[in-house]
Amino acid sequence: LEPGDMLYMPRGWIHQAHTPLGKLGASAEHSLHLTVSAMQNWAWVDLLEILMPEALESVARSETSTTLRDGLPRDFLNYMGLMHDVGGEDLPEGLKQASKSIAEGKPEDDSDIDETEKEELRQIERKRKLQARFKEEAKKRIMRVCKEAISMIDAGCDQIGKRFLSDRLPPAYNISEIVLTNESRTNQAAGRIWPNTLCRLARPGIARLVLEDGKAVLYHCGDNSRVYHGNPLSPMEFEVDDAPALETLLTTVEPRWVVVSDLVHGDIEDKMDIAQALYDEGILAIYQAEKPDKSVQVG
């Protein structure tokens, strides 16, 4: 590699940077390289690390089922575990064949084994049945947790989204974006929201709406510090019935606009208040294409 070159290493390839010796074995020259890694905390395992513990807790605390709170089978340690493996590899050949036949549902041919071996075989089969029953009961409970986890996928993705917003840098708006946000009060709307004001999210991906404790909570990275985790996220709380209007504002991005009066809500004053709150927070772009409709006054 020469100075200025960029090398792409597929994810998972083990590598180590090394500066070779100079001419005639002279000491290596100083070298500095910058590694940029993608997909950090962005794998399926990261989602499952969120989903599975929460699903397990949810099922365990269920008021409609006690399946995970049931006691484990009596004396299960006497037949479960590696030391109780009954795979048959260490059995005498006669017992191994007899055990295999029983396991496959074939008639048992015990003419070549004595009474002691027959008893040992019966014990093995009892243990095998107990193990199968235990595993089936465990499977039922594991599937119950997995089913709950599937129902929580959206919530898990929201957790990933919140973590990403917390980790990322604040948006660095360009000139065309600045004139549409509250970073510049020189735009036509002068910072006021009217029923006919055009709105959209200032930059795609800078905000996310989730439902928490009966509230519509909006997380954004607008107040993030350029120092990693220098500022904690400052969520905005709204009523649940504000969620449809918020969703529309957060999913309307360049080049589209949405008119405040078209937001889904009960009355125009609430629509204006919601848009104003997002604009004042610095995450909403607005544009007044027509003369402001001042038939409704808020604030």
Structure description:
Helix 1 (44-60) packs across helix 3 and helix 1 (44-60) packs across helix 4. The model has no long low-confidence stretch (mean pLDDT 87). The strands form two sheets. The protein has a three-stranded antiparallel β-sheet with strand order 5-1-6. A three-stranded antiparallel β-sheet has the order 2-3-4, with helices on both faces. The longest helix has 37 residues, at 115-151. The chain is flat. A hairpin with a 2-residue loop joins strand 2 and strand 3. It has helices at residues 44-60, 93-103, 115-151, 153-167, 175-178, 243-251, 268-280; strands at 198-201, 207-212, 215-220, 236-238, 258-259, 284-287. The chain contains seven helices and six strands; from the N terminus they run αααααββββαβαβ. The chain starts with 43 loop residues before the first helix and ends in a 12-residue tail after the last strand. By secondary structure, the protein is mainly alpha-helical.
Summarize the structure.
The protein has 299 residues and is mainly α. The protein is 35% helix and 8% strand. Helix 1 (44-60) packs across helix 3 (115-151).
